[in-house]
Design a protein that fits this description.
alpha/beta; Ubiquitin-like (UB roll); Cytidine Deaminase, domain 2; 2 domains
């Protein structure tokens, strides 16, 4: 498995002068996903939880609906300059009867760590139809619970403490219990890892759950949450206009600027219990 952090020497400049010291950087390496030997996508990610990432990616792209749709996952051989396996190529075998990805899912180019939908072969494939409509979930989450989630997620971001360079995503119950948290240089990868954990745990659809993200709520994060049946998505920063539009269309509760005791509820306010 690749390294999660990389040490590099830096020149530290401050009012106290200058000095040379080592610094920890968040690792970023390519991961090629293959389906039954055929290349599907390459994403820039932080190594670790790659099988979860693959499960989550395939769920949120509409390829699979649950863990029974995947029969195996294995790393393919690939060596770096040191002659060791890079663990940067992962081949997923679909279960018998599961249709392979449509052409629209394939990436013409690589998926960067900042964009989860770049390079789609067809723009129409960006807007996917979920098997688990969030609108069908009438759960409620108290304001007092929501305001605790950013600190709980931040406390679970262990690698962020040493690098300051990773996005975080956490899945919570409606009463504020943390089910899982994942970190990655890409916000969409962090979410895919969380969703992949849920797939492997047999928890999809994620009824009565809140997805908390450390950055902004972009369109692709709303889409990923909708594909897993998540009724509530909360972010510490702003949503985009298209994110709010999609959340409204899917019947999802979208919360932004969740900081301290305040928040903005953009859609689905009926689930926020005051």
């Amino acid at each position: 498995m690749g390294r999660v952090t990389v040490r590099r020497p830096v020149l530290k400049l401050s009012h106290q002068g200058e000095r040379h010291r080592p610094d920890a950087l968040a690792a970023e390496e390519p991961l090629e996903l293959r389906i039954d030997g055929k290349a599907l996508a390459v994403t820039m990610r932080t190594p670790g939880n790659d099988v979860e990432l693959a499960h989550g990616f395939l769920l949120t792209e509409g390829v699979i609906g649950g863990r029974e749709d995947i029969s195996a996952a294995r790393y393919c051989s690939g060596t770096g300059p040191d002659g060791r396996n890079t663990y940067n190529v992962l081949d997923i075998s679909l279960a018998p009867g599961v249709a392979p990805p449509e052409v629209g899912v394939e990436r013409n180019f690589y998926t960067t760590s900042s964009c989860g939908v770049c390079g789609k072969a067809a723009l129409d494939a960006v807007k996917l139809r979920t098997r688990y409509l969030p609108a069908d979930d009438d759960c409620g989450v108290p304001v007092e619970v929501l305001t605790t989630l950013p600190d709980k997620l931040r406390a679970a971001q262990k690698v962020f403490d040493s690098t300051g360079g990773l996005h975080g995503a956490g899945l919570f119950t409606a009463d504020g219990k943390l089910l899982v948290a994942r970190e990655d240089v890409g916000r969409h990868n962090a979410v895919d890892k969380v969703m992949g954990w849920a797939v492997q745990s047999g928890l999809v659809p994620l009824r009565g759950c809140v997805l908390m993200v450390s950055g902004r709520a972009s369109f692709e994060l709303v889409q990923k949450a909708a594909m897993a049946g998540v009724p509530v998505l909360a972010a510490v920063s702003a949503p985009s206009s298209l994110a709010a539009e999609l959340a409204d269309e899917q019947g999802m509760t979208l919360i932004g600027f969740l900081r301290g005791e305040s928040m903005n509820v953009y859609t689905g306010a009926q689930r926020v219990l005051r």
